[in-house]
Design brief:
The chain is built from 5 helices and no strands. With about 110 residues, the chain is mainly alpha-helical. It has one domain.
């Protein structure tokens, strides 16, 4: 699986889990993980400031453990919490995409 496909599939899962399916900012042919990280960081920062419970629910749906979420919230240097959470989300969603593809091939 190439990186563009992995990023696109991860992005789709993230939109679903954060309830952002209607967001049209993505041009799917040009997606890359650095863009995805920047995009998701903005979304997470917004939720941190305006709808923390929605963020917690999304992290639960994505299967980020409560311990990992607490660690990210408490241990991230000031001003980087959103980016740290975004990276954890992307990593988890990538794992899910890879696992699903492996099981689909067998």
């Amino acid at each position: 699986m190439n990186e563009v496909t992995l990023a696109r599939d991860s992005y789709r899962l993230i939109l679903k889990d954060f309830g952002l399916e209607g967001d049209s900012e993505l041009e799917e042919a040009n997606i890359a993980f650095d863009w995805l990280e920047d995009y998701l960081t903005r979304q997470v920062d917004h939720l941190l400031d305006h709808d923390f419970s929605k963020l917690v629910n999304a992290l639960y749906r994505i299967d980020i453990s409560e311990e990992k979420a607490k660690e990210l919230l408490q241990m991230s240097p000031e001003g980087t919490t959103g980016r740290s959470i975004a990276r954890a989300v992307i990593e988890r969603e990538k794992q899910k995409v890879i696992t699903r593809r492996q099981f689909r091939q067998t």
